[in-house]
Amino acid sequence: MIYQTLRLILLFYNMRTIIRFPDFRNFIHIFDDVFIKKIYGVEFVQNPKLIVDCGANIGITSLYFKLKYPKVKLICFEPSTLAFSYLTKNLSKFDRDCQLYNQALVGDKRARAKLAGNPAHPSAHLAEGEKIGEYEEVNCTRLSDKLPKKTKIDLLKIDIEGMETEVISELAKSRHLENVQQAIIEVHRQMLNSKQIAKLISLLAKNNFEIVFKDGNVHTFMLHAFQS
């Protein structure tokens, strides 16, 4: 049944490509969120020209955007070496329209960080003073250092496991946030009452964004911010 549903959805999107993944269970979970539940589904006045995917993992969300909006340009960030290798393969058909960075996003100028957790799983995160077991040393960058200047960003998608506030804060300071028309940010349910989320909402509000919370999955909400 799963394979039949997957095939029908891909046919609906006229998808003539192969999706590669390191773990089938994780793939089905992401595919269900993105293509069936459409947690990143937003409305645009006109078809988007530029979408930035922060925490692209193996590229399922980027594929969704590219199939829905064939002319859109994508800028994608993924710190995990393993996940990035699949991201590169899954978007290879659209390489002229995609800029891919094998880097973690941070709000400061650090060059390296430790990525903890399963490197292929979307829950892999930068270790911030915690005790960790296995980890991968990854390269870091500030988002503002990679974005084109004075260019409208139709959608900023963020799923970076705890670094959201830091990255949005740096975008506001560098004035790149002014160019963002919409943002959709994954927020874990246990973080909803935290100071970090309160700061994130305050930052967005001060930069003229209206905010709506939508259901994501059993573990997350989606914070949808759009210019008022």
UniProtKB/TrEMBL annotation:
Domain Methyltransferase FkbM: 53-210
Listed InterPro entries: FkbM_mtfrase, SAM-dependent_MTase, SAM-dependent_MTases_sf
Coiled coil region boundaries: none
NCBIfam families to which the protein is assigned, alphabetical: fkbM_fam
Name of this protein: Methyltransferase FkbM domain-containing protein
